[in-house]
Amino acid sequence: MAEKVAIPGTDLSMLPFGLGTVGAGIDWDGADADRIFDAFLDMGGSLIDSARVYSDWIPPEIGRSERVVGDWLARSGKRGRIILVTKGGHPVYRKPDDDLRISRMSPADMRHDIELSLRALRTETIDIYFYHRDNRSQPVEEEIETMEAFRREGKIRYYGCSNWRADRILEADAYCKKMGYRGFVADQALLNLGMRHMKPMADDTLAAIDGELREYHASNPQNLAMPYMGVASGFFHILAEKGEEAVKDSPYCTPENIKLAGRCLALREKYGATVSQAVLGFFAVQPFRCAPLYGPQTVEQLKDALGALDIPFEKGDYDFENGGRDLAACP
Question: What strand order describes the sheet that includes 156-162?
């Protein structure tokens, strides 16, 4: 099993892998949720990630994912064994045509969300609380002070950002240093094996770990990269199982990623790895520590994905495109 990742300046240490719960209440609930959460802990995992908005776009329930996590915590009594993560401040997203550019990150919005999160999660304190989006017209000082207020009140222990650009994170870091605050401990953004060659995402409010944000993480280990969509929304899995016709509408379906899937097959054969393990192995060779988030549908999928931590992937394993250009150094 891989060594644990420790975040500098905190008492947080975890496997370089987080359990995502966007499917909680949809793919699994009740006894099935118990099996997944318990299996994750039994395999050495601890970081469980949710968000107030998960999965409001599927009516009628609001805050479904947090409710499932909270129900399990109440049944199991295992709150002390996990690093509990959730996020607030996401735009309203209850139907396909909701405008995700309409910000709701004011102090009042954030307080509204965190109170609902604490209630749904059945806890008094969230270990890492994230801004789910950024509002570039809002002073970063105000955003940090909102989080610091929650920390002083005991509602959160640490805080992070999700879908922020590098310049705003640097601005927040500078303000926190000036004020003597710990600042952001983690950053959730898009990163995966197929990201470099994908088509533009429909949601342009998402941020990716490329360019300046990639350079930021390489230079700032105190802010742990916590990538989402780590298995590229299942693109490589579906392609391997069903062929190109089944993925033709995926934003990852490009000639470059089709070729990449073929080269990834050689990597699977080298290690006797599954698709999930080969895709997730990409994170082990990054120039910065990261803990990708993965949302399983079954315990078997979870075991499969966590198996990637037992494979000694090397940086050279991902040097297999563009005449040897390093995949682990994507721009």
Answer: 224-225, 184-188, 156-162, 126-131, 83-88, 47-49, 18-20, 293-294
- Give the rounded distance of the alpha carbon of 244 from its chain centre: 27
Cis before residue 60, ω within 30 degrees of 0?
yes
Tell me how far apart the alpha carbons of residues 108 and 151 are, in angstroms, rounded to a whole number. 16
Contact 63, 113 (CB under 8 A): no
d(CA 35, CA 27): 13
Nearest CA among 102, 110, 212, 127 for reference residue 164 = 212
Residue 8, both tokens = 């500098």
Give the structural domain span for 42: 12-188
- Assign 2 a pLDDT band (cuts: 50, 70, 90): confident
Q: Is residue 77 part of a domain?
A: yes
Number of folded domains that form the chain: 1
Q: Which CATH number do you get for residue 181?
A: 3.20.20.100
Give the number of C-alpha atoms closer than 13 A to the C-alpha of residue 47, restricted to the C-beta side.
26
- Specify if 35 maps to a domain: yes
Q: What is the pLDDT of residues 121-174, one digit of tens each?
A: 999 999 999 999 999 999 999 999 999 999 999 999 999 999 999 999 999 999
Rounded to an integer, what distance in angstroms lies between the CA atom of residue 224 and that of residue 155? 21
Q: DSSP for 282-312?
A: GGGGSSS-B--EE--SSHHHHHHHHGGGGS-
Residue 98: its H or E element = none
326 domain-assigned: no
Asked, for residue 103, whether it belongs to a domain, the answer is yes
Which helix (H) or strand (E) covers residue 138, if one does? none
Closest CA to 201 of 170, 168, 175, 228: 228
Global confidence as pTM: 0.95
CA distance 298 to 36: 7
DSSP 8-state assignment for residue 61: -
